[in-house]
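Quick entry, no commentary yet.
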Amino acid sequence: MLNRKSRMSGDAQVRFCERLGLKCPCLLDRIDVLDSEKVKGKKSHLGWMWSYCNPVDRLVFFEYHKGRGNKDARPVLQNYKGYLHSDGFSVYKHFGSQSGVTHICCNAHARRKFHEAKLTDRSRAEHALMLYSSLYGIESYCKEQNLSFDQRFKIRQEKSVPIFDELAGWVKEQIPRLTTLRSPIGKALAYFSEREKQLGMFLHDGMLLMDTNLIENAIRPIALGRNNFLFAGSHDAAQNAAIIYSLLATCKLHDVNAYDWLKYVLTAMPTFPASRIKELLPHNWKGSTIEL
């Protein structure tokens, strides 16, 4: 049962990070929370759901914090080692520079900025989008063919690297030709240029994804929640919601029917051996064939 002590302990967070160690895409989204501690003014607080995902083991982890600064990500990322895949948010850049961490940036975010620039500089924006379309076409082929990491790496080296290098070279050529980088196309070019190395990291390891869309999809229910239940009843309730989001998002990645899983777990838990409780987690669940 969820309760006021449901926040993951420091040691548990470290163990979770070790499990995430192969690769950790992370993003955050806002959630409104009723705050009974406020005496004056608005009684709600703008909190943040920090989300982490391991696409290899297909694990998702949400954690609620009141803020979105370095101190809020520190419990999970301070001792993290491995790949850290994120958007361009400064907090991720900070932890991405740690020893033992390889920071990767999301190409979907970079591509989106060129898409936004189409209204003001169509020719430049469409050229970048054409090259990105080619890169994503290669990724779609690898996924459709269910290629191994080694096979994906080989294809990327043969086909994707020349396209990415062409895009990077073109960006370098265009920046001096602009009178300002404050325009939409200028911002898109600058965003890519500043993160070129991190954006190209996926080319060098077949295990890596090109973007953070997997975790983007996992956080969509949070946006839906803002329109449905509107707010969490307290900070503790927001953390309880983070736990539920974690479990249900992991169900989805493992093609587990969330209703069937939750019904079985709630029925089985009162008599289920504590020593085997991990068997009930979505990624370990074998359906109703588990013997009590």
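second:
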Amino acid sequence: MSADLPRRGHIHQALAAWYRDSRIAATLLTWLPLAPEGVPRPAAEVTRAFPIVGAAIGLVSGIVFSVCAWSEMAPLAAALLAVAAAVTVTGGRHEGGLAAAVGALGGGDPGRMGAPGVAAIVILLGVKAAALGSFLSTGAALAALVGAGAASRAAIPILMNALLPPDPADTSRPSAGDAWAAAAVGGFFALFVGIGTWLVALAASVVTGALLLKLARRYLAGSPACAVAAAQGVVEAAFLLAASVVTLWE
């Protein structure tokens, strides 16, 4: 019995560390001030918890969609409100990164949102809403939103690790271990959609992320933060689209 005490202590410490990192991650990814006071940690060290926050954001969006569907609102209108709820919770951080990335691709100022950036945001949000509105059940839509939120936030540390050059003094680059941990957590939450849908949606997310990484290395090497923020939204849309197609096949 006494031999189990150290093991329980280690488990408790590990869970406490994940809880702390999740609160800090929530402060970074949303406008909610949830970070514990007096616990300074570089952003890169809490990226492993990004998928947990993404799953929570997806859950909020899914609840909004479910309530709208329960009230017999039109599917597209319910989807638009669900997408708007996610943007509200995050403060539009990822959408701003998308607009900046599009601006940089066009040779403009990455810090300034021009017409192409606004158009990219409208298109991306429209694609998400269209995919969400095509689900035949609110349960499938809720699971897809949770999975997409987690999987797309898992892409952030993976892409940051790949885009930023190795530098022991650089505290903004997540370690490979944290990137893999985020991938595992994101993959777990994505399982909520079911094995068949999970395989297709995750494959779509991985392919999309790989293409975006290649694009970022070639054209956005000077704006890695914008590239990563933009990738989150695009990967999320790819997951939702793939999941919606599979559910229509079933």
